[in-house]
């Protein structure tokens, strides 16, 4: 049976390779889909982001060359450029400066390359390669099942992996399958895709080892993949570390149990009631809970939006302002969708609209100006957070949100 599966996998691989040779990609690396497949992949390739003049580009380069993260002038200047629109070729440098990647790496005792060497030992013992991690899912699953039946590892002092290692490797490998399957750096089995998948695997494994308290959880693969599209591998690792570990950013979204993000969904639920009481009441009457659509938005940082230039502009703002920009983006989308949502009374129509935001709302010329015109104050979020904490004292799920499991997320 295993030989037949291997043969089938080989044929599928050859088919994918032949198809990939004829594919065309847009400027951000996403495959140009046929019109009939656009709804399936929910990806728009008609970008409308502004082009900076050569003079502005030169000014931005000069700013980045003497960047000082502690300088108010530098921060105000970079915000001005982000509002105008960061050129794709300079976005990686902007993110590096804002996240202070070099300083984080230089002041840490963690050695990325040494960590990877330590990880490769368990992989070798399991017969798994980082360059074939997707094809190793079956092997990891069988090993995990065997351990579950035997309740313990084989008695062998030379084994360099644990049951936790197998669980971690398998979980990341499973998530790699659904992380941007139409991006050239991750789709198919071209040399570029194999290398891209290996890089993403290494970055995620390294972070799980770097911060074992947080480890790996759903959504991280999307965030790390976006960082790898803009930065080198080790730079992407330190950028992920900055986003997940600095209180300003996503510390309050990620943990192993998804408890933190569920709390932030409740905060947004209160925030929506405060800002948009009629819309909030309408969604509740239809049977739509914030957890069903806000959690995927938060965990993947809006990478499900169909217009990639808009996604990157959202990320620019999040990397500039932190968690408050995540709430700001969610509120902006809700405001843009409000006229349509208020006319809908069927849960089966409302939820798909929220999970797959239409192109006419997500396009740069609509979403980004609206985003800059939307204000979210820190004191508002603190007040909403206090409300949620007060409600939690009355018992679990006092606000009616159901407990969320990984399978229910379907990211």
From TrEMBL:
<dbReference type="InterPro" id="IPR000195">
    <property type="entry name" value="Rab-GAP-TBC_dom"/>
</dbReference>
<protein>
    <recommendedName>
        <fullName>Rab-GAP TBC domain-containing protein</fullName>
    </recommendedName>
</protein>
<dbReference type="InterPro" id="IPR035969">
    <property type="entry name" value="Rab-GAP_TBC_sf"/>
</dbReference>
<dbReference type="GO" id="GO:0031267">
    <property type="term" value="F:small GTPase binding"/>
</dbReference>
<dbReference type="InterPro" id="IPR050302">
    <property type="entry name" value="Rab_GAP_TBC_domain"/>
</dbReference>
<feature type="domain" description="Rab-GAP TBC">
    <location>
        <begin position="85"/>
        <end position="322"/>
    </location>
</feature>
<dbReference type="GO" id="GO:0005096">
    <property type="term" value="F:GTPase activator activity"/>
</dbReference>
<dbReference type="Pfam" id="PF00566">
    <property type="entry name" value="RabGAP-TBC"/>
</dbReference>
């Amino acid at each position: 049976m295993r030989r037949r599966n291997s043969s089938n996998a080989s044929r599928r691989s050859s088919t994918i390779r032949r198809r990939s040779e004829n594919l065309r990609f847009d400027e951000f690396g996403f495959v140009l889909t046929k019109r009939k497949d656009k709804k399936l992949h929910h990806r728009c390739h008609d970008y409308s982001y502004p082009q900076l003049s050569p003079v502005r580009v030169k000014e931005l380069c000069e700013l980045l060359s003497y960047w000082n993260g502690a300088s108010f002038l530098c921060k105000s200047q970079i915000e001005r450029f982000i509002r105008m629109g960061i050129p794709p070729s300079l976005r990686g440098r902007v993110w590096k400066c804002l996240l202070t990647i070099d300083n984080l790496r230089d002041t840490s005792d963690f050695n990325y390359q040494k960590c990877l060497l330590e990880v490769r030992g368990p992989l070798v013992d399991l017969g798994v390669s980082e360059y074939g991690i997707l094809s190793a899912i079956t092997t990891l699953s069988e090993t995990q099942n065997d351990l579950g039946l035997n309740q313990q590892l084989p008695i062998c002092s030379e084994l360099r992996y644990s049951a936790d290692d197998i669980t971690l490797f398998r979980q990341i490998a499973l998530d790699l399958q659904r992380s941007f399957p139409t991006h050239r750096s991750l789709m198919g089995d071209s040399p570029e895709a194999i290398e891209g998948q290996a890089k993403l695997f290494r970055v995620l494994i390294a972070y799980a080892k770097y911060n074992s308290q947080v480890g790996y959880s759903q959504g991280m693969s999307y965030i790390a993949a976006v960082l790898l599209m803009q930065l080198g591998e080790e730079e992407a690792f330190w950028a992920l570390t900055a986003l997940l570990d600095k209180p300003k950013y996503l510390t309050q979204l990620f943990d192993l149990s998804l408890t933190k993000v569920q709390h932030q969904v409740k905060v947004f639920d209160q925030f929506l009631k405060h800002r948009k009481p009629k819309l909030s009441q309408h969604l509740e009457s239809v049977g739509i809970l914030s957890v069903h659509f806000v959690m995927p938005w938060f965990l993947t940082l809006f990478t499900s939006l169909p217009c990639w230039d808009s996604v990157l502009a959202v990320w620019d703002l999040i990397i500039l302002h932190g968690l408050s920009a995540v709430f700001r983006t969610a509120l902006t989308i809700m405001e843009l969708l409000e006229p349509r949502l208020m006319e809908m009374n069927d849960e089966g129509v409302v939820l798909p609209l929220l999970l797959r935001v239409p192109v006419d709302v997500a396009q740069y010329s609509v979403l980004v100006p609206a985003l800059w015109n939307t204000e979210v104050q820190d004191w508002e979020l603190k007040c909403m957070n206090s409300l949620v904490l007060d409600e939690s004292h009355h018992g679990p799920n006092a606000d009616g949100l159901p407990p969320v499991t990984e399978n229910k997320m379907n990211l």
